Amino acid sequence: MVGIEPGVIRNREYATRVRDFSGLRFGAITPTDLDGLIEYKDRGYVLIEVKYGETRLPDGQRLALERLCDDLQRVKPTLLVIASHHSVGDIDVAQCVVTEYRYNGRWRQRGARTGPLVSGFLQYLDALYSEEC
């Protein structure tokens, strides 16, 4: 689409609609969602999940995202970011506070903003790739 800035919500009305996964229950398992995914230049992945305030990831979502991150890590470097916000309106994900992140099979605590953490990881991927060439 011409004239639409990447990353900007294109259809706000559709984006606010609730997805009902109740018909996709398999025992105690239901689908989970992910707030953001970056596939960066065929070099690595960034997964982003944002929660409001002090809300913790439900155990099932934590396990699913952790396993997804670790599985992808076997193929390419993968960063999973869990962040929080206190926004009333639109959420500026780059400004969300990182509560924890997962990389290389380990959870780490972090108090930085999502934007700088992700930017640093992408710079690391660029440096890693240029060393291999």
Please describe what this structure looks like.
By secondary structure, this protein is an alpha+beta fold. The protein has one domain (12-132). 29% of the residues lie in helices and 25% in strands. The protein contains 3 helices and 5 strands, in the order αββαβββα. The chain has helices at 12-15, 59-73, 114-132, and strands spanning 36-40, 44-52, 78-85, 97-103, 106-109. A 5-stranded mixed sheet has the order 1-2-3-4-5, with helices on both faces. The longest helix is centred in the C-terminal third of the chain and has 19 residues, at 114-132. The radius of gyration is 16 Å and the shape is globular. The N and C termini lie far apart (34 Å). The model has no long low-confidence stretch (mean pLDDT 90).
Short description:
The chain has 133 residues and is α+β, with helices and mostly antiparallel strands. It is 29% helix and 25% strand. The chain has helices at residues 12-15, 59-73, 114-132; strands at 36-40, 44-52, 78-85, 97-103, 106-109.
The strand line-up of the biggest sheet is: 1-2-3-4-5
Write the element-wise H/E pattern from the N-terminal end onward. Answer: HEEHEEEH
Q: Could you give the distance between the termini? A: 34 Å
Structural class of the secondary structure composition?
alpha+beta
**Count of helices?**
3
Q: How is the main sheet built?
A: 5 strands, mixed
Question: What is the residue-averaged pLDDT?
Answer: 90
Radius of gyration: 16 Å
- Say how many strands there are: 5
| Low-pLDDT residue spans | none
- β-strand percent reads 15-25%
Considering DSSP H and I runs of 4 or more, what fraction of the residues is helical? 25-40%
Count of individual domains: 1
- Overall form: globular
